[in-house]
Amino acid sequence: MSKIEFAGVRKVFQGDTPNPVVAIDNIDLTVRQDEFVSIVGPSGCGKSTLLYLLGGFLDLSGGEIRVDGRAVTEPGPDRGIVFQHFALFPWKTVLGNVEYGLAEQGMGKAERREIAQGYIDMVKLGGFEDTFPNRLSGGMQQRVALARTLACDPDILLMDEPFGALDAQTRHILQEELLEIWSRRKKTVLFVTHDVREAVILAERCVVVTARPGRVKTEIDTSSGKADGAAIEKKAEEIWDVLREELVRT
Amino acid sequence: MRPLAGLGRTAFYYTPLLIIGLAWEAMARTGILPPDLGPSPMQTIAALRLLYTDGDLVMHAGISFWREFAGFASSCVLGTAVGVGMARVDWVRTVFRPIVTFLYPMPKSALIPLLLLWFGIDHMSKIAAVFLGCLLPVVTSAFNGARGVEPQLIWSARSLGTSSTAILWKIVLPAALPDILSGVRIALSVSWLLLVSAELLISRSGLGFLISYTGESGDYSSMFAAILVVVSIGFLADRLFLHVIRWVLRYRDFTG
């Protein structure tokens, strides 16, 4: 049962220059319901573009993206996104940020407050409800962003290098928290990262994208051996070997 | 203790002004400054009290305030709409950008005679001067602010269910607000300057008129008093607005 299908997806950035940039070309990819898929590739290979297209933020230059069999035409609350640099609304408090999507769905004040509080507690930010994002550390801000996205209960979670801007310890903790959240409330997750170890630890399947123009180079099963450090390293090494061929091409 | 300490700091900050005033007064009294150079600070304050008690000051100030408010408020609303529109809608940008570029370096005071011709000697010409003085700073700051909004903020909101039209006031406007407010602050001081200039030039009322009228009739103490009022209002308005900005943008206070 496929949840998401990319079929011959192509994205060209026209820009102001005479030479249009082909970011991704002819991507075919299928993601199952509740699957956790990581996407790795050299920087500039269009792996984030892939998420933005699925999110409906950018227009396709060719091909089609289907969610539950329906073509994606615009953004929607069924596809939540978490960005590397959080993209919180700075003029809203933590509670205001987490409540935002619920208010947009037309939910009443008392009800949305209760739900938002639940997600704030889930990401361990109880007590910071009335704090503005600027006062929080990067890790805390990313927790707010995660809570804000999860509060709308999207089917699909798009994560664009969400832990890339965080220090190693914070990243490790947030990875664990994400896995715990995912195991409790299954969601289809597309997780873009440049960290192959992170891809192995989190995802069930790792999609390696080629250097620009991005195509699917190979897919590697990462569903087993999560508890075993040596197995993780071995799998990461396997992905790294494939990735290295692409990195030298850029 | 804290507000008192703040008051003390403020008093200290403005001490040089006080010293200049006292020195001026002393030089006037001892005759170092010849009397025909104008009234001393104390004479000015005495004239100010008289202007206030006979009601002239309040009336003219009220008229100036009304003109300033009407021009300033309408300019802020329209300027923000045009600036944000330019940033977000291609044809609005195509239409307004050359107009803004052309008018930006123009000294707006050069328009005052024209405005008098079009709108007459009373309120409308003064409101128009204030309106035009405010417009460009607000338009350009709103344009820059709205254009600089991170696409990811907009995308986040879109994926949380905000429609593409609602993005305008739910995301673009609040995200551009810091820029808009700094443009509005510039507009505030520019417009006050233009208003007083327009009233000085040709008018039958307002604080600028009070300055030129008392000056022409040789009542220099009253003229100085009116100038003092104009300067003080400009200063206080800016200080007040700065506090409003700080309060509205208090969410930014914590950036290190």
Indicate the topology.
The complex is a heterodimer of chains A (250) and B (256).
Chain A (H helix, E strand, L loop, with lengths): L1 E12 L7 E12 L3 E5 L6 H9 L6 E6 L2 E2 L7 E4 L11 H11 L4 H14 L15 H14 L4 E5 L7 H17 L3 E5 L3 H7 L2 E5 L6 E6 L7 H19 L3
Parallel strand pairs in A: 3-8, 3-9, 6-7, 7-8
Antiparallel strand pairs in A: 1-2, 1-4, 4-5, 9-10
Helix pairs in contact in A: 2-3, 2-4, 3-4, 6-7
Chain B lengths: L1 H12 L1 H16 L10 H13 L2 H33 L1 H14 L8 H8 L3 H25 L3 H9 L7 H35 L5 H10 L3 H29 L8
Helix pairs in contact in B: 3-11, 4-5, 4-7, 4-9, 4-10, 6-7, 7-9, 9-10, 9-11, 10-11
What does this structure look like?
- The complex is a heterodimer of chains A (250) and B (256).
- Chain A is built from 7 helices and 10 strands.
- Chain A has helices at residues 47-55, 94-104, 109-122, 138-151, 168-184, 196-202, 229-247, and strands spanning 2-13, 21-32, 36-40, 62-67, 70-71, 79-82, 156-160, 188-192, 205-209, 216-221.
- The longest helix of chain A has 19 residues, at 229-247.
- In chain A, helix 2 (94-104) packs parallel to helix 4 (138-151) and helix 6 (196-202) packs across helix 7 (229-247).
- In chain A, the strands form 2 sheets. In chain A, strands 6-7-8-3-9-10 form a 6-stranded mixed sheet, with helices on both faces.
- Chain A folds into 2 domains: 2-78 and 154-247, P-loop containing nucleotide triphosphate hydrolases (Rossmann fold), CATH 3.40.50.300; 88-152, no CATH class.
- Chain A is an alpha/beta fold.
- Helices cover 36% and strands 25% of the residues of chain A.
- The radius of gyration of chain A is 18 Å and the shape is globular.
- Chain B has 256 residues and is mainly alpha-helical.
- Chain B has a single domain (40-252), classed as MetI-like (MetI-like fold, Orthogonal Bundle), CATH 1.10.3720.10.
- Helix content of chain B is 80%, strand content 0%.
- Chain B has 11 helices and no strands.
- Chain B has helices spanning 2-13, 15-30, 41-53, 56-88, 90-103, 112-119, 123-147, 151-159, 167-201, 207-216, 220-248.
- In chain B, helix 6 packs across helix 7 and helix 9 (167-201) runs antiparallel to helix 11.
- Chain B is globular.
- The model of chain B has no long low-confidence stretch (mean pLDDT 90).
- The A-B interface holds A 52, 55-57, 74-77, 79-81, 83, 85, 87, 89-93, 100-101, 104-105, 132-135, 145, 148-149, 152, 154 and B 150-153, 155-162, 164, 171, 174-175, 177, 250-255.
